Amino acid sequence: MERELDGLRVAILVAEGFEEVEMTEPRKALEEAGAETILVSPMRDKVVSFVHHDKSNAYEVQLPLDNAQSDDFDALLLPGGALNPDQLRVDPAALEFVKGFFEAQKPVAAICHAPWTLIDAGVIAGRTLTSWPSLKTDLTNAGAEWVDREVVQDGNLVTSRKPDDIPAFNAKMVHLFALRPSGATSR
Fold first, then answer.
1. Catalytic hit among 52, 53, 113, 175
2. Domain count of the chain?
């Protein structure tokens, strides 16, 4: 099996209430391709996922957000779930962390409600992307072009709408992350 992401370090940024499958399935795809994934969160020890509107499992926070630097990673995954990005978008440390990936032109993958965080990080103006449909107006007002497609790549950013799109999202994410832009820090 080809492991096109060997040596790649990927931060997965989540707060309480992330949509479980939008973290676990992309994480599995990244790890199967050889990437090292690190769960980063404003929470200190554990972070709780949701399945739709119901609490699900607790996951170990591998790196607290206040100890995380975008320079230490090659790529960023932002799972959705309505509660998760709603918390991250008002957290100055989360916004600075996200901005660091865009400033270094490192690849970022965001699904479902995750583009809310990108709005407040100030990184989507002039980009074409997709998301959960209810974010269309917010994204358009922030200067993005919103399209209704299962997966969209615009430069270093891959976005998808919902859990049903995960297979297409994973394929596009792994392909983009494998390109290893010049700003990447692969060891």
1. 113
2. 1
Per-residue pLDDT of the chain (187 residues; tens, 9 = 90+): 468 999 999 999 999 999 999 999 999 999 999 999 999 999 989 999 999 888 889 999 999 999 999 999 999 999 999 999 999 999 999 999 999 999 999 999 999 999 999 999 999 999 999 999 999 999 999 999 999 999 999 999 999 999 999 999 999 999 999 996 544 444 3
Which of the following is catalytic: 52, 53, 112, 175? 112
Q: Residue 122, by phi and psi: left (phi above 0), alpha (psi -120 to 50) or beta?
A: left
Is residue 113 annotated as a catalytic residue, yes or no?
yes
53 a catalytic residue: no
Residue 3 domain-assigned?
Answer: no
Please count the helices (runs of H) and the strands (runs of E) in the chain: 6, 12
Whether 184 is in a domain gets the answer no
Does 186 map to a domain? no
Q: What's 142's DSSP letter?
A: T
Which residues form the domain of 19? Answer: 9-178
Assign residue 145 the CATH number of its domain.
3.40.50.880
